[in-house]
Design brief:
The chain is mainly alpha-helical. The protein has twelve helices and no strands. It is globular, with a radius of gyration of 20 Å.
Length: 275
């Protein structure tokens, strides 16, 4: 006679935290293996940053000027770094909705697994992917003349702000992905492009119409871009608004606020699926 043993559920807070971390890593490892074994997705994610650098750096960059006569490609690269982090929302959305449509999410929910561990695993996998994308984008930037001038400390701080932004955006992607279909997730690029364009990604807000400039200056993406330009020592065109003068502070506060809102919403949404 075969006896099936059900694992004992953890009761104390340290046990629950360890449980969530262990299962989060298992889910993350599964997502990373799936990513590696899907050559189409891997190729697209690796080629896209290269295309963006070449297109904006050489095609559009030839017509752009930077205040003080700076190199436009050095002005551009921080914007492309942050834009890549923003576009990661679409990757998260597609992964979450695909798992839900194929029954993978329901299978996880039917097992004695930590609900926070499942969404944590998704975030770990996406952060690993984002680190790879940043490395490739940085290599492309170095190849076309971009440099950082404030030493390794400034470069690491800038990378930390970029990954903090990506971590915050992951939770927005998970929350939305648990509510929409794969078809809707595939169209996520449409609203993301305006969000990255109405910012200081490619031009200074001071060059935009008067009614549009405040929106660009207070865009969370603008805070990260302005902050990492400063940390990299790259040329920029700062404005005289409070948001422009406190970009580093906002580059920390915006992601923390998004995490505080959407992380618990994502866990709650996962727990309430199909109720």
């Amino acid at each position: 006679m075969t006896v099936l043993l059900t694992p004992q559920m953890p009761r104390t807070l340290p046990q629950r935290a360890g449980w969530a971390l262990t299962e989060g890593w298992i889910v993350a490892r599964r997502d990373l293996i799936h990513w590696v074994r899907n050559p189409t997705v891997v190729t697209y994610q690796l080629v896209w940053p290269i295309v963006m650098v070449l297109m904006f750096g050489f095609v559009f960059g030839s017509a752009m000027t930077v205040a003080g006569g700076g190199n436009y490609r050095e002005f551009l690269m921080p914007g492309l770094f942050a834009q890549t982090m923003m576009f990661g929302i679409a990757t998260t959305l597609l992964s979450v909705t695909t798992d839900a449509s194929r029954g993978v999410t329901d299978r996880f929910r039917s097992m004695p697994m930590s609900s926070s561990g499942v969404v944590l695993g998704r975030s770990i996998a996406d952060m690993a992917n984002s680190c790879g994308e940043l490395a490739i984008l940085a290599a492309c930037g170095l190849a076309v003349g971009w440099r950082w001038h404030e030493g390794p400390g400034g470069a690491l701080a800038a990378a930390g702000l970029l990954l903090l932004l990506r971590f915050a955006l992951i939770w927005i992607g998970i929350w939305l992905g648990l509510m929409i279909t794969p078809e809707a997730a595939a169209a996520a690029w449409a609203p993301l492009f305006p969000l990255t364009m109405v910012a200081n990604t490619f031009v200074s807000p001071s060059q935009m119409p008067g009614w549009l400039a405040p929106l660009a200056e207070w865009n969370p993406l603008s805070a990260t871009v302005a902050a990492i330009r400063d940390l990299f020592g790259n040329p920029g065109m700062p404005g005289d608004s409070w948001a422009s003068e406190h970009a580093v502070l906002l580059a920390v506060l915006w992601p923390l606020a998004l995490i505080a809102v959407f992380l618990p919403l994502s866990v709650r949404r996962y727990r309430r699926l199909a109720r």
